Amino acid sequence: MKFSRLSLSELESLEKEFIEFLAANGIDSDYWVKLKKEENQKAENLIAVFSDIVWKKSLDKINFLEHRTAQSLKLFKCDKKTIELIGIDGDIKKFNPDLNTNTKFSIYHHKKEYAPSRDMELYRMVKTGCSISNETLFNSLKKLL
Description:
The protein is of the alpha+beta class. The protein has helices at 8-13, 15-24, 29-38, 40-60, 118-127, 135-142, and strands at 64-68, 72-78, 82-89, 106-113, 131-132.
């Protein structure tokens, strides 16, 4: 299993897709019930495979991520081969690029290739608190560089 197993509530929200996945693997509802009772490990393995497929498709769609704390804002542009970071450190609540304030901020920029892979790096970032974002804030801050 490459990624984490989907929770029961996540699986329930993807019930239609899971049924299609099972059908594509030649498993009808009666056989699925039998698998869960008699061959639980095989059923768990199928859920793991389905979970990896869902994670992979979700990660492939990510273009921008952000991570916010009271003292930092990190914005990421997630291209296919590289990831670009624009970060701001300081009292983020007081940050307004259009106003001159006495509050000190540190703005930095970095671009790198993914390590070990795009999927694994984005997965780690999402699991450690990054949320999906859009290009608007990223592009606004990039103008400050």
